[in-house]
Amino acid sequence: xxxxxxxxxxxxxxxxxxxxxxxxxxxxxxxxxxxxxxxxxxxxxxxxxxxxxxxxxxxxxxxxxxxxxxxxxxxxxxxxxxxxxxxxxxxxxxxxxxxxxxxxxxxxxxxxxxxxxxxxxxxxxxxxxxxxxxxxxxxxxxxxxxxxxxxxxxxxxxxxxxxxxxxxxxxxxxxxxxxxxxxxxxxxxxxxxxxxxxxxxxxxxxxxxxxxxxxxxxxxxxxxxxxxxxxxxxxxxxxxxxxxxxxxxxxxxxxxxxxxxxxxxxxxxxxxxxxxxxxxxxxxxxxxxxxxxxxxxxxxxxxxxxxxxxxxxxxxxxxxxxxxxxx
Length: 327
Fold this sequence. Notes:
- Helix content is 17%, strand content 22%.
- It has 327 residues and is an alpha/beta fold.
- Strands 10-11-9-12-13-14 form a 6-stranded mixed beta sheet, sandwiched between helices. A 5-stranded mixed beta sheet has the order 3-1-8-5-6, with no helix packed on it.
- The longest helix is centred in the last third of the chain and has 15 residues, at 252-266.
- Belongs to the TRAFAC class OBG-HflX-like GTPase superfamily. OBG GTPase family.
């Protein structure tokens, strides 16, 4: 998942509608044939479609323009022009499309769901529609209406059961690598993962759940400092939040409160989610230190001590998460 792409901007243009026909019947044995011009066809739509087999917006990374064909013109004998072919943009579930003003056009919630993000222009009416008792042979028809055009932004919010929340270097990547087959980049210094990593965590009896390593929060993320907003939105989709505090933190509870504060500033509803607190890198701690850290947290559920390196506490963590997911 190192090539995770969660934000793509594409110029879209739906098809123009075809023009109506102004044809008059001219047949040998019908001297006053009258109007028989057909309607123009609708222009092609631009449609966003959910695809459960897509996990990222990577396939769209190099798509700069998407254009749908125009509708065909109407013809004689009241023949309607063919519709312009619709163009589909396949996106992962959890993708939101926004217009140039930042307004949400639609959100894909399930596989196969389709949302028209730009409507094709309506075809013009043929002259057959304009005949009347006072105008038996109208010699005019409507032109087709133009399609829509503009930039559309596609944003992906990760659909994961568990979202890992923590400052850079909290051990999120190490934990994800330890409990799943994900292979995130891991470094021994404070840096921020720039792309969310997803991992399928195997549980007892062939069960599993999805864990997402959300890029590291820095203080001020809710104000958009750094890449804060772009990544905080991923957390909105997680069922459970796993706050990860490193064992070598100067104040474990204080670090937890800072993370909680950033989430509250961004969206207070995030704190209504169930959460678990884990102290990572706990192979650095002895029993006495673990006891002291536990006392820092005035909570019903004390923190779990885990280590991605020694595997300590990982099954207990999975048990707690599974119970919260399916309790």
